[in-house]
Design goal:
Strands 5-7-8-10-9 form a five-stranded mixed sheet, with helices on one face. It has a three-stranded antiparallel sheet with strand order 1-2-3, with helices on one face. The chain has a two-stranded antiparallel sheet with strand order 4-6. It has helices at residues 44-100, 107-138, 150-167, 186-202, 261-271, and strands at 8-14, 17-27, 33-42, 146-149, 171-173, 181-184, 209-217, 220-227, 275-279, 287-293. Helices cover 46% and strands 23% of the residues.
Length: 294
């Protein structure tokens, strides 16, 4: 009765094997169903092949989605790079053109040279970051490790950013930095702390505060940079050290820079056998970056 008058085809699984089952009613002279004829065909290989194809299609779909996401991130980065290069170049070209139309030694000359010099330093930093990223991609970044005291390295990095902090009334509280010896490359480690301090300063409003701390831990040293800035959204926190990933879109950003500094920081720290992490309770709560070195 369940079959009615039609044949039934189904695929069933039993103990890891797959069978295609065919059922058809067998009728007597009076047209009534007297029995059912059943045939089971082993289709295990065919079924597994179909499932493997489905799995591969899903994997390909996921890989394509990741590739498209990476492509969009790189497109955003290239748009940002173009914007960041054009801005200082436009300033320098504009002031150079103005100087050609003025008498030498005029009052504009001092201001012009200051602006041109500042923008040249900015271009130089952009190029240095790009070269470092190139070294990361090709595996050519190296560190020359030896015993170094982290305290003077941190103080040197603070001295570099102090004028910019003073210009924005941002206080840098470094406390008393103790002598802590680690195995490291002093120039690269200064680059790490300069990048962390510059990043913190960039996202800290006027009148804010940066706090720098250094302490010895059982397996090495721990340095922290804490700011009272805009904070880091929870959804972006896991990606803060990724290349070509930024919380702000390329052309709608409030803050200058390529966003490569933190990716470079992570790579240098990991080359030293250390680790770096970012913590923030969200927008408006500031952020803390912690570097641990063996």
């Amino acid at each position: 009765r369940a079959l009615g008058g039609e044949a039934l085809v189904a695929e069933v699984e039993e103990s890891g094997q797959f069978y295609e089952t065919h059922y058809a009613p067998q009728r007597g002279p009076d047209g009534l169903v007297e029995s059912v004829l059943g045939v089971a065909i082993d289709v295990t290989e065919r079924s597994r092949g179909a499932r493997e194809i489905e799995r591969l299609l899903e994997s390909e779909k996921a890989l394509r989605s990741e590739a498209e996401k990476a492509s969009r991130s790189k497109d955003d980065f290239l748009a940002l790079l173009s914007h960041e290069l054009r801005t200082p170049m436009t300033a320098m070209i504009g002031w150079a053109y103005l100087l050609r139309r003025k008498e030498p030694g005029g009052p504009e000359f001092g201001q012009a040279f200051e602006i041109i010099e500042r923008n040249m330093h900015l271009l130089s930093q952009i190029i240095e970051d790009l070269l470092d990223v190139s070294k990361i991609f090709t595996g050519r970044m190296r560190v020359d490790q030896r015993s170094v005291d982290l305290a003077p390295i941190l103080r040197a990095a603070i001295d570099v950013v102090r004028p910019a902090a003073s210009a924005h009334n941002v206080v840098i509280d470094a406390g008393a930095l103790p002598a802590v010896v680690v195995s490291g490359d002093p120039e690269r480690l200064q680059q790490v702390f300069w990048n962390l301090l510059s990043n913190a300063l960039k996202f800290t409003p006027d009148g804010g505060k940066l706090m720098v701390r250094l302490r010895k831990v059982k397996d090495g040293a721990e340095a922290t940079v804490t700011d009272s800035g805009v904070g880091i959204p929870a959804e972006f926190l896991p990606h803060v050290f990724d290349l070509f990933t930024q919380a702000e879109k390329a052309m709608t950003r409030e803050h200058r820079g390529l966003g490569l500094g933190l990716a470079i920081v992570r790579h240098i720290v990991e080359l030293h056998g250390g680790s770096v992490k970012a913590e923030s309770e969200g927008a408006g709560t500031g952020a803390t970056f912690t570097v641990r070195l063996p």
